[in-house]
Each structure stands twice: as structure tokens, then as C-alpha cells.
Amino acid sequence: MSTRAFKMFVVASVVAVVSACSSPVKLDESQNVPVEDRSGQMSGNGANPNGVARVDTTQQGLDPLNDPKGVLAQRSVYFDFDSYVVKDQYRTLVENHARFLNNNRNRKIVIEGNTDDVGSSEYNLALGQRRSEAVRRMMVLLGVSDDQVEAISYGKEKPKATGNDESARAENRRADIAYR
Predict the structure, then answer these.
(1) pTM as predicted
(2) PANTHER family attached here (predicted)?
(3) How far, in Å, CA of 16 to CA of 172, rounded?
(4) How many folded domains does the chain comprise?
(5) How high is the mean pLDDT in each 10-residue block of the chain (180 residues)?
């Protein structure tokens, strides 16, 4: 490894460590978030700009986790390249799963952080962990108990899509919510 490449590696490592110390999940707890009640009516501001439907987890006789058309079937939060900031478009998805977990305190999840194939295995394991932790922190801020949520990383070891093009890599930059 040349001296220049080594210096670039050291600088990139320092930047990665420093950025890992920041808190990328921002929730405005004073925001009026719409919630679906038992009748299916929306309360709060009523708008859902993200296109993700809200879930009513209080219906009896149905396990919303087994409904392939239900909102809890969506279990992947996607990230930008080299980022672990939960995008606004996935906020409703995380809120729906948090609401389900708050209503079902006996259920537990593992949030599995994943990355694309760019970068070293060590770097991608750390980035995958930061992605899973970002989703976990968001859920905890939404009231989910710490003992219900575990955050792990697979780095680049469990790709969802194969290939080296940008669409395949974008599909692999994610955190998956797995119920146990």
C-alpha cells in the first residue's frame, strides 16, 4: 500500500469514527403525527406524505405480521450510499412497527443492518451496525422497550440483490426488521 493510499485510509477511518458518534435520528416529539383509530379514521394532521399506510394493530383475530398486503409486510429501511440517516420516507414504516411492538410487548425484533459491496468488510460491518442502531434508536424514541429490539450487522454478507450496478447496490443498503 502506498503512503498516499495509507493516509487516505487513515483520514477515511477517522471520518467514519467521528460520524459514528453523531446522532442521525431526529424526531420532533412535538409534531402532530396522525394515528389510525379502530374505525379507520385518521386523527392528528391526517396527511401521509410518505405513501406508507398506517396500521391499526388492535383488530382482533388478525395477525398483521402475516398479512402480505398489510403495512407490516414492509420491513426494509433503505439508506443512501455511505449513510445511516433514516430518511423521512421510511419514518411511517418505522412508526408502524413501533406501534405494533408497543401494543404487543411480548414480541421482539432484530434489526439487521446491511451494506452494498463497496468498501472493506470491516468498514461495512460498522456501517451496517450504525444503520441498524439508527432504526433501533428511532423505535426506542417512539416508546418501544429496549429489551424488545436488538441491532446487529451483516455488512455486505447478506445481499438482497446480486450484481455490481447501482440498482443492485441501492437494494443492499438497508436495515431489515426481523420478528422473532
Answers:
(1) 0.67
(2) LIPOPROTEIN YIAD-RELATED, STATOR ELEMENT OF FLAGELLAR MOTOR COMPLEX
(3) 20
(4) 1
(5) 56 46 41 36 42 50 81 95 97 97 96 96 98 98 97 97 94 97
